[in-house]
From TrEMBL:
Keyword Methyltransferase part of the UniProt annotation: yes
Species classification: Eukaryota, Viridiplantae, Streptophyta, Embryophyta, Tracheophyta
Enzyme class per UniProt: transferase
An individual GO BP term: rRNA base methylation
Start-end of Polar residues biased regions: 31-40
Native source species: Rosa chinensis
Residue numbers spanned by region Disordered: 31-67
Entry GO terms, CC: chloroplast
GO molecular function: rRNA (cytosine-N4-)-methyltransferase activity
Protein name, as recorded: Putative 16S rRNA (Cytosine(1402)-N(4))-methyltransferase
Length: 423
């Protein structure tokens, strides 16, 4: 018969089994952790490969400028480099008469002064801008460009929005709308002096008031939108104008901030964005990209940029003379989409009836053949065109900065140049 002592399990064996069980659990846990880590690593590699593929496809679709960028020729100074200046000069080359020219966004007059100097035959120049500081600098640049005593050029500058281009041209000369304008330029980007001034409220890296007005005389500020506009409208602005995926969280944070006195500086807004940015958006680049989209959304809303742009594109095209060109430089997808769709809409507008339409169509084809011959012979920058009833899009795909220009001026990376010519 077995005794009680012989039936009992030794304590050392119990501890040994318990220790083995713990070790097995630890190994299982480590295996699971390793598996999760491997899965996460695979997902990251897949995401990186997809991102590289997207970048490669995007780069393949780009029509990069093949013009050699010369900082001494195309850069005004270390603080101001006109974007795509060489390409804009190609659009309005010295070989083609440019007697009447309008710069809708004169800024520091980098583009304007170069075009004036390249066209001594120019008779009328009109420069527009809503920023009084920029316009004062532009006037000085334009006056220095008018150094030819034999020049008959008359230059006019207006502190006005380009949406009023038709009425402004009528004020200059009632016959301008009849004869038409040979060239119109719109550069939709902000100048460095605007971004670098903290008091304007455009920079995410410098603390200043929540202003963001392009026209300092306008009444609406970014602060007004953030602190008093309806919650749903704030969310819509972030979603539609900033194309920000985290818009709902940001909307809620902004509304909560109102209960604590509201937002009154760009620094406070940036801190709010940092607190609302998910940790998965790694490091500084995560919040700064979100902040850039939020600031863009507010700036567009404050200045009603998209509606103004769409309306003005039609007005500018109407002001062109036959053979005249409208060149637009955009800096984000919302602007570029509007320019692209408006140009397509312009060239596909059809009207007339019966025989009159057929006559117009025959004349149109004849005009387009002439345009095509001129472009093929003299203007190598034109790669693909879209021809329509009222005009020809000379840039089926937009022209983007060369790699050399991007390296010297990182702010130009998103710039896109589209050009349309009136028949």
């Amino acid at each position: 018969m077995a005794t009680a002592a012989s039936l009992s399990t030794p304590a050392s064996r119990i501890f040994s089994l318990s220790s083995l069980s713990l070790r097995l659990r630890g190994l299982t846990s480590a295996a699971h952790s390793l598996s999760r880590s491997t899965t996460t690593s695979k997902k990251k590699k897949q995401q990186q490969q997809k991102q590289k593929h997207r970048v490669a496809v995007k780069e393949k679709r780009r029509t990069r400028s093949d013009r050699e960028f010369d900082i001494n020729r195309y850069g005004d100074s270390a603080f101001h480099i006109p974007v795509l200046l060489g390409e804009v000069i190609d659009v309005f080359p010295p070989s083609k008469p440019l007697r009447r020219f309008v710069d809708c966004t004169v800024g520091a007059a980098g583009h304007s002064s170069a075009i004036i100097e390249g066209h001594p035959e120019m008779q009328v120049y009109v420069g527009l801008d809503v920023d009084p500081v920029a316009l004062d600098k532009a006037r000085a640049r334009i006056n220095s460009a008018l150094n030819d005593p034999s020049s008959t050029l008359k230059a006019y500058t207006f502190l006005e929005n380009f949406r009023y281009i038709k009425s402004l041209l009528t004020d200059v000369d009632e016959t301008l709308l009849d004869t038409g304008i040979d060239g119109i330029l719109m550069d939709l980007g902000m100048s460095s002096m605007q971004v670098n001034d903290p008091q304007r409220g455009f920079s995410v890296l410098a603390n200043g008031p929540l202003d963001m007005r392009m026209d300092p005389q306008a009444s609406l500020k970014a602060e007004d939108i953030l602190n008093s506009w309806p919650e749903t409208e704030v969310g819509r602005i972030l979603r539609d104008y900033g194309e920000e995926s985290n818009w709902y969280s940001l909307q809620n944070k902004i509304v909560k901030a109102r209960l604590q006195g509201g937002l009154h500086s760009t620094g406070e807004l940036v801190d709010l964005i940092k607190s609302a940015t998910p940790l998965s958006r790694e490091g500084r680049q995560g919040w700064i990209k979100t902040a850039t989209r939020v600031f863009q959304a507010l700036r567009i809303a404050v200045n009603d940029e998209l509606k103004t742009l769409e309306d003005s594109l039609y007005s500018c095209f109407d002001c062109l003379a036959p053979g005249g060109r409208l060149a637009v430089i955009s800096f984000h997808s919302l602007e570029d989409r509007i320019v692209k769709q408006t140009f397509l809409d312009i060239i596909n507008i059809k009207g007339g009836d019966g025989d009159a339409y057929m006559i117009e169509e025959r004349e149109r084809k004849q005009d387009l053949r002439k345009i095509r011959i001129d472009i093929d012979k003299d203007e190598m920058w034109v790669k693909q065109m879209l021809q329509g009833l009222r005009g020809t899009i000379l840039t089926k795909r937009p022209i983007t900065p060369s790699e050399e220009e991007e390296k010297l001026n990182t702010r130009c990376r998103s710039a896109k140049l589209r050009v349309i010519q009136k028949v």
